[in-house]
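Record 1 of the preview.
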Amino acid sequence: MTRTLGRTGLSVPPIGFGAFKIGRNQGVKYPTPYELPDEKEVSRLLNAVLDLGCTLIDTAPAYGLSEARIGDAIGHRRGEFILSTKVGETFADGVSTYDFSERGIRTSIERSLRKLRTDFLDVVLIHSSGDDLQILRETPAVELLQQFKDRGVVGAIGMSGKTVEGARQALNWADVLMVEFNLNDTTHAEVIQAASDRDVAIFVKKGLASGKLAAEDSIRFVLGQSGVTSLILGGLNLDHFRENWRVGLESRRP
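->
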């Protein structure tokens, strides 16, 4: 029940695992606080997710310990999954910082490769601070991602943005866009369709509005959109993820 990742030729499941909660619990928007799992719990969770058939893992330097924990837990299974990470935002000592400079982007990718224990990143997205157009127009981020792609270090490139205008601009070069979309927020609906027309893949973030929406209805709604490739869902409860995975596999596009 996989879906084609735009023009990349890769195949991904309709549900991807979002690895935020395995690495960070500060400065979050979830309605309920949570403790970070220990290393053994992370390993059990990630290996179980792969065993389930979820072959898309999404992470970022902004997710605290996430990248390093993925490398430690499932780095030995690297050939079994599509790995998506980001550049531009890092999180340390309880604070997010943004750096879209040439040095910042290069350092970020090199650090991600090391932490994730890999020599290749399937997908790398610009992790926007919210100033999408300024990042795209006034920083070297896009050019640098294109260089890493040309070198064969990165497979697909794109943007995890905040604005419709930024997403529209990114359609000119991106292989993948990550956008917020859910039952309460459909502002990116036209962008999703435009991306589909251009064979650009769409990852949806916050499809459950950070846990504020009922899972089953939300999953069916998001994955029912014709241009959506995968819905990224996180969590620390394997039973919940299994149920969301089941709903995702049953969801059909119109």
